[in-house]
Amino acid sequence: MKWGLIAASVLAVAIALVVVFMSRGKPEPATKASSEKMLEVRTLAGLPKVVDIGAGDASAAFTELVKFYDQESTTLQGGQPTAEVGDKAMALFIQVYEAGTLSTAFLDKTTPIYPQANPTFGLAPLGVASGALARINELRARDDAASKQRAVKGAQAVWAVGQIMFEKATRLPLRQQGLALMQSAGGVMIAWTEEAAIVAALDKWSPAIRDYTDNFLSPKLEVVSSLKPNIGDLLRIADADKDVTFRVEATLALARVKYNPRTKGNANGIADAIRKLQEDPDPMVQEAAKVAEAFTKEQLHGLR
Fold it and tell me: Do 46 and 89 contact (CB within 8 A), yes or no?
């Protein structure tokens, strides 16, 4: 009799555990957006050089570029900068280019680890580039060789800053701006048929950037930046992506979606992931998870 009671108790506990486990549910299934292939690190390494990038510290020159945008943002955003503003914009990009490069630490420090955060300098590089490239097109159309060469150097400088931001930054908004700078400068330079070496390099870069954007970056953004992402994909990217850039963004996205999980299984999966990621070996992922844990509904409303 005693053994029968013990067996019955054990069975009851086992059934209770199964019921609890089943009642938690499971997150929605992941899709091909977080397949093993999509979780690999993708770069644009191995392509021909468009410019030579130095090893010096260009942070002071970059800071000057940002200050210039703050002073001239109205003119630059208007789309018709004066020749003086265009010349200054171009000169500032050349100054950054000639100074060297930007460190990962310098760039990442500009972007808070917070949901939907933008760099502290906003869209300054893109804004100044619009003025520089407008002036570059004007100079390139002139007959004198000095103006044409100045235009080449200016466009190369815009490309160089973009490449630095894309390759050096960890945070996704910085890498996206870098990619946009490269596309803008490349779109100008690829028409310069007499610059054979540049055009030959860009003939390789152009399809590579398009493939990266269409078949890798855009599908990832549909998960980490969506208001209603597939939770299975988001959890896989946060936990298993080999590129910490996307792990950080996915982890920060958990802060938002935890308030609209849609199913109990999703809610439990999100909570479990946030707890686990707070112990992650990567310090940036760990910090993102702590932010996600502390993120409130009031903060969520502040994003909208």
Answer: no
Q: Compute the distance between CA of residue 182 and CA of residue 51 in angstroms, rounded to an integer.
A: 11
3-state secondary structure at position 101: strand
C-alpha count within 13 angstroms, C-beta hemisphere, residue 295: 27
Which residue has tokens 């969520």?
A: 300
Q: Is 164 exposed, middle or buried (0-12, 13-18, 19+ CB in 10 A)?
A: buried
Query: Phi-psi region for residue 247, left (φ > 0), alpha (ψ -120 to 50) or beta?
Result: alpha
What sign does the CA torsion over 270, 273, 275, 281 have? negative
* Topology given in CATH for the domain delimited by 228-304: Leucine-rich Repeat Variant (1.25.10)
**Relative orientation angle of helices 244-257 and 264-277, to the nearest 10 degrees:** 130
pTM here is 0.91
pLDDT of 156-195, one tens digit each?
999 999 999 999 999 999 999 999 999 999 999 999 989 9
Q: How far is CA 149 from CA 97, 142, 154, in A?
A: 15, 11, 9
Sign, CA torsion 251/256/257/259: positive
- In 3D, which of 13, 31, 15 has the Cα closest to residue 23? 15
> Nearest Cα to 132, choosing from 104, 103, 101, 162?
162
**DSSP state at residue 229:** -
Say how far apart CA 200 and CA 159 lie, in whole Å: 15
Extents of the domains making up the chain? 59-223, 228-304
